Amino acid sequence: MDGSITLPSATARTPSAALDRVRQAAEAICIPVVALLAAMIVFGVFMLLVGKNPFEVYALIYKGGFSSAFAWQNTMQRAAPLILTALCVALPAQAGLIVIGAEGALVLGGLAAAVAGHALAGGSPVSVQIAMAAAAMVVGGGWIAIAGVLRHYRGVNETISSLLLTYIAIALFNHFVEGPLRDPASLNKPSTPPIGEASMVGHLPGMDVHWGLVYGVVLCVCAYFLVRYTIFGFALRIVGGNVRAARLAGLSVGRLVLLSCFLGGAAAGLAGMAEVAAVHGSANASLIAGYGYAGILVSFIARHNPIAITPVALLVGGIAASGGLLQRRLGLPDATVLVLQGIAFMLILAGETLYGRLRIFQPRAH
Amino acid sequence: MDAGALGWWGVLIAVFGGAIRVSTPFLFVSLGECLTERSGRINLGLEGILVMGAMSGYGVAYLSGSPWLGVLVAGIAGLLLGSLHGAVCSLTRVNDIAVGIGLMLLGTGFAFYLGKPFVQPKAPTLPAIHLGDWASSAQVQSALQVNVLFIVGVALAFAMHWAFRNTRWGLVVRMVGDSSDAARAMGYSVNRVRILATAAGGFLAGVGGSFLSLYYPGSWNEGLSSGQGLMAVALVIFARWQPLNCFYAALLFGGAGALGPALQSVGITGGYYLFSAAPYVLTLAIMIATCSTRRNLAGAPGELSVTR
């Protein structure tokens, strides 16, 4: 790596170059926002077609997700796992991989946390919680790392393998929760033995939001610095840009691919731990709630930028939080949120084609 | 004759019968995916199309009373979603794998939304052809109940195999998939061929979905599809993009899917959930065995992003 790679800091000295950075940032914000507005229009037309007033629907989404402190707490509660599962997509994406197996890592991570929590019950809460988090992150990370290993050593497409691994993970989870690890006391809803009230992760002071949100936000900031300001992150982005160039530069592509998958999976595993240790108290079928799939959407809207994941997750979480209100007030089925998410996802992806094409956002300094 | 009396033969017959029954959606979806991938694009959204096909087919069959009309409408729903995928992917710099994930979300979302009223009612199902009436065993009889769609699918596999080699359309699709430069030089619009191939693939996946809701398991609910649409993508890779191999692979996957219930019928219930994962494990094992980092897969279309 000689002087041929221009670092951003080297060009940011002149005022016009600084303006170019603003233009770039504006492009990265404006295009997704316009795509989301377009999605709202398309979804509004769909609502009109099924005989609902779209403005009423949007007013309810705002009311249910963002209007009051209560609504915000509900939103943040739902955003917490999404932030972590989105990282499971965003980190491997830096190395050019599309991994969509966060659901599997979350489920198995939650199971590992529940097992560790039950085995260590009675220990000091902090040490039990650390053990639960460690177990969940190792299991979740290892699970997604399988997709990385298969990609690197066997050339198996990581998108397909990670999704197949999710189905296998859910089957394993069901097998253990309804079989060997089932708590005989859980009659109606098969669960693992509870981790005990003492080991539960509490809520943030003065709020009805658990600590999982903080885990997510902190990990996002860490991931941002890792990707942007470390040699590891730089190497990762070279692999994502051009694998052959990375090999020629002497980077160990396999190690980077594996590590990015492991870190992503660890984040998703931690989401499972937070769900178990802060919400359910044991591992049961409630863990399979589709957080992993919603995380894919979050990461793509954020364009795999870790720092953008938190606000996007709050947006998606808020829409999900309003689902109950939509159901009660307008009699809309719970899949309404899915439809809106699907439309938004398609338009965001279609918006990718606009990057670098709108003159207003293009750099002018030379 | 009860299920246990035949012992292990019973398991074998049940797996065989299950293979025929369960393989039909695999067959249609994999043929559709085969056509799409041969044109150089991958559609991961077939899962969403399958669910949408299952819902629309069931809904129309219930409202009109005709299951065949349901099959047609399911195909048309798949055609529309397939063209959407094809059109969005034709924009420059749009990743077809990501659009597929989006379509999966969109298709299941629409299907769950519009399908809510059809969860309870009972729609007329597709008729079965009884090929096993000569047998005295009830198990053999039920194993040999074959649906018309299965026969159509088998015929289609042979037809596609022939068409890829012998018709102008087949050759154009293959050329576009192997080298878009060559296709452009010959004066064909790469995007148009790919949109048409994706739309046709979507039609087949929609029909495959209607089989789920109109024949086996034969009802509509939100847990109807368990990833068949996605497994079909892996299945096509395993089949090396050959329609006839898709047929054999679909039978194999159907058999793997029928293993859990068949073992349950002879009293082996312990690892039910583990056996239910058999098709996924099989898919993964096949991909591990057949993929390689050093060379492109034999028979892979040159333009396909998934094998690069």
Keywords:
heterodimer; A: 366 residues; mainly alpha; 2 domains; disordered N terminus; B: 308 residues; ABC transporter involved in vitamin B12 uptake, BtuC; 13 helices; 2 strands; 2% strand; globular
Secondary structure topology:
The complex is a heterodimer of chains A (366) and B (308).
Chain A (H helix, E strand, L loop, with lengths): L7 H4 L3 H35 L4 H13 L2 H26 L7 H18 L5 H30 L3 H21 L33 H18 L1 H11 L1 H6 L4 H28 L10 H11 L4 H16 L1 H8 L5 H16 L15
Chain B lengths: L6 H32 L7 H19 L2 H24 L5 H20 L12 E3 L7 H6 L1 E3 H19 L1 H11 L1 H6 L4 H25 L13 H11 L4 H23 L6 H5 L1 H13 L18
Antiparallel strand pairs in B: 1-2
Give start-end ranges of low-pLDDT stretches of chain B. none
Strand % of chain B is: under 5%
Q: Please state the structural category of chain B.
A: mainly alpha
The value of Rg of chain A in angstroms is 22 Å
Mean of pLDDT of chain A: 91
Count of extended strands of chain B: 2
Task: Please compute the radius of gyration of chain B using only Cα atoms.
Answer: 19 Å
Give the total of domains of chain A: 2
Gross morphology of chain A is globular
Strand arrangement, largest sheet of chain B? 1-2
Query: How many helices of chain B does DSSP assign?
Result: 13
Element-level helix/strand string of chain B: HHHHEHEHHHHHHHH
What are the segments of chain A in which pLDDT stays under 50 over at least 5 consecutive residues? 1-7
Counting helices, strands and paired strands, the structural category of chain A is: mainly alpha
Number of strands of chain A: 0
CATH architecture of chain B: Orthogonal Bundle
Oligomeric composition of the shown chains:
heterodimer
> Could you please say which CATH topology of chain B applies here?
ABC transporter involved in vitamin B12 uptake, BtuC
Main CATH class of chain B: Mainly Alpha
